Amino acid sequence: MRFLYSAWRPESSTDEQRLRRLLSVFSTLVTYTSGDVEEALQWLRQLAEEYGLFDDELNLQDLIDKLREMGLIEDTRTGIELTPTGIRRIRQDALNEIFTSLKKAPLGSHESPFLGTGVDRLGETRKFSFGDQPTNIDLTATLTNAFRRDGIDEFTLKEDDFEVYETEHQTSCATVLMIDISHSMILYGEDRITPAKQVALALSELIMTKFPKDYLALVSFGDDAQLLSVNELPFLSAGPYHTNTRAGLQLARDLLRRRGSVNKQIFMVTDGKPSAITLPSGKVYKNAFGLDPRVVNKTLDEAVACRRERIPITTFMVARDPLLISFVEELTKANQGRAYYSNLGNLGEMVFVDYMRNRKKRFAG
């Protein structure tokens, strides 16, 4: 048996690294195809032929076998489908993809700058007060105070002797991420829905793994608004819908109202002006032309309602439509929130940085 060896090069990669890259490509493609594994594999086959992704040691069938072995896909009566493990892997790959694009940022165990009744102990101490945890008592400082007052022979402990460690006040955060699924998110030769889904996948993975006490809800809005589960997210697709921004904000505000006194915020990813509202009768009024005052005013009313409940809206615009910009300026003014224009390449970075920044703020409610 003969073996063919080549010189090692800095850009050389191990089999494990190549497999990890191919899995990441697969995750991106299956997100693009809204969870259609077989279509994603067809795209992967075309890319492999064009860019030489495979060789004699690892071909497409080997990758498919590996996906089955890892429990990421399974064969069903209707074809090859993602497993729950596969969906989780897509979230992890989306999170890793965004993290690699982030520059140094405070993405560790992020606390607020305020002192309070948290669980992370600091070096500073203060006098004991009613309600402090006994486990946070600084025994050395407490005994020193007692000895300094009465000496060793007359040892007694008084309430004023006790000192406790300061602790960092851990904030919790409730976030609703709204994703526009109107028709324009896939029109004009630009895929805007896939980057939006990747951000939602990554943000949900971040919160579930790093900040499990935080709350994240995912809301899609087209002709109406719907609450999504994390496992439904890869299968989300844009459709022949208008943009009912008001319905999305109403659902988001209702979800956040139930969360109690925590930091609350709405992130909205959109590429179009509002073009629909739901009437009291339940019918959807639509007007895709211009900025219909009937639609805009009702949507701005909802932005004001969010402001009164201390729910800031951060809008990420993935298009430069003048009508969209005009509307978002009014929305931001009414809500006293924030708005960014983000291209599809840096959408994830902007959402993550803003999420971490907002999570540090103290809720004054």
Explained architecture:
- By secondary structure, the protein is α/β, with parallel strands linked by helices.
- The chain folds into 3 domains: 15-82; 115-168, no CATH class; 173-359, Rossmann fold (3-Layer(aba) Sandwich), CATH 3.40.50.410.
- 40% of the residues lie in helices and 18% in strands.
- The protein is built from 10 helices and 13 strands.
- The strands form 4 sheets. Strands 8-7-6-9-12-13 form a 6-stranded mixed sheet, with helices on both faces.
- α1 (15-32) crosses α2.
Furnish the topology, listing elements before pairings:
Blueprint: H1 15-32, H2 37-51, H3 60-69, E1 73-76, E2 79-82, H4 84-101, E3 115-116, E4 120-127, H5 139-150, E5 163-168, E6 173-180, H6 193-210, E7 215-221, E8 225-228, H7 245-257, E9 263-270, E10 276-278, E11 284-286, H8 293-308, E12 313-317, H9 322-335, E13 338-341, H10 347-359
Parallel strand pairs: 6-7, 6-9, 9-12, 12-13
Antiparallel strand pairs: 1-2, 3-5, 4-5, 7-8, 10-11
Helix pairs in contact: 1-2, 1-4, 4-6, 6-10, 7-8, 8-9
